[in-house]
Amino acid sequence: MNALPPDRPAPAQAPDVLSIYGEAVPSRLFIGTALYPSPAILADSVTAARAGLVTVSLRREQARGRTGERFLSLVREMGVRVLPNTAGCHTAKEAITTAQMARELFDTAWIKLEVIADDDTLQPEVIGLVEAAQELGRQGFKVFPYTTEDLSVADHLLKVGCEVLMPWGAPIGSGRGLNNIYGLRALRARVPGVPLVVDAGLGAPSHAAAAMELGYDACLLNTAIAKAADPVRMAAAFADAIDAGRSAYLAGIMPPRDMAAPSTPMAGRAVL
Q1: CB 195: neighbour CB atoms within 10 A?
Q2: What share of residues in the chain are helix, strand, coil (percent, to 5)?
Q3: Which residues contact 167 (CB under 8 A, 6 or more apart)?
Q4: Residue 160 pLDDT level (bands cut at 50, 70, 90)
Q5: Are 162 and 191 in contact (CB under 8 A)?
Q6: Could you give the residue numbers annotated as active site?
């Protein structure tokens, strides 16, 4: 009933392209490369996710030795941009050194910066994070900081040159979704022009859709896909959720109401 007549084409829409550090990223779903049951399933999952980039932990792959070398070759063959990260680093010095090694290995100035405060929660250590981000910025890196939703930390990271922020949704690998929707919404309002990526804690496609409906620009996840019974199918489900959440945000989501509002007009109602 609502379809446009054949002689009326659908209105053109401007391309909705995510740009980070001045470069276009082809998809708003970023995925990690750990925990997959096999290299083939990893490759198929990356394809099904239509991933904009994949993250690789340099320290983990170093520990793998020759196996790590084969893994890195596989990642390069997938043809998706690699975002190396400093996972496992607990100090700014560790993270800076790891980032320098990653730049040499992957030939990229992009780095996902992680400085971890606590092994139980894997919470970002925000003081060391800002310190490392400032130094890496001086060295020409394009830093993607894994952070909290704290507004003052966000301000500090932006002041030292970060052009994207990656606040956690929940602790890494927890699958809890968005623990602090109020804080994430406040951060989105605080920095409307800054790309924001929800990183960590997403366990279901609905969590990713909710993040996108808040106006976030992308989501990064790993465990929810890699540890699913069918990782490839789950990757496709997350890709669809990202697209749906983004489209809903752009379309304009209706605000919640405290009282009912009739969708059927009162005029013409039968009087009994």
Answers
A1: 19
A2: 40, 15, 45
A3: 147, 148, 149, 154, 184, 187, 196, 197, 198, 199
A4: very high
A5: no
A6: 112
Amino acid identity of residue 50, one-letter, is R
Place of tokens 């659908």: 10
Measured distance CA(201)–CA(86) in Å, rounded: 18
Position 7 confidence tier, pLDDT thresholds 50, 70, 90 = low
Residue 263 pLDDT class (50, 70, 90 cuts): confident
For Cα atoms 168, 45, 15, give the angle at the middle one, nearest 5 degrees. Answer: 70
DSSP assignments along 98-156, one per residue? HHHHHHHHH--SEEEE--BS-TTT--B-HHHHHHHHHHHHHTT-EEEEEE-S-HHHHHH
Would you say residue 2 has pLDDT above 80? Answer: no
- For 20, residues 6+ apart whose C-beta sits below 8 A from its C-beta are 142, 144, 163, 164, 195
Global pTM? 0.89
Q: Which residues does 158 contact at the CB level (< 8 Å), separation at least 6?
A: 165, 191, 194
Q: Give the model's pLDDT for residue 73.
A: 81
Distance between CA 89 and CA 111 in Å, rounded? 13
Tens-digit pLDDT profile for residues 27-41: 999 999 999 999 999
- Written as six digits, the tokens of 90 are 């607990």
Q: In this model, does residue 175 exceed pLDDT 60? A: yes
Sequence-ordered alpha helix ranges (H) in 24-83: 39-49, 58-64, 66-77
For Cα atoms 236, 238, 244, give the angle at the middle one, nearest 5 degrees: 105
Burial class (CB in 10 A: 0-12, 13-18, 19+), 264: exposed
Residue 270 has pLDDT above 80, yes or no: no
Which pair of structure tokens corresponds to residue 26? 């082809």
What span, in angstroms and rounded, lies between the C-alpha atoms of 128 and 180?
23
Q: At a CB cut-off of 8 Å and minimum separation 6, what does 50 contact?
A: 27, 29, 239
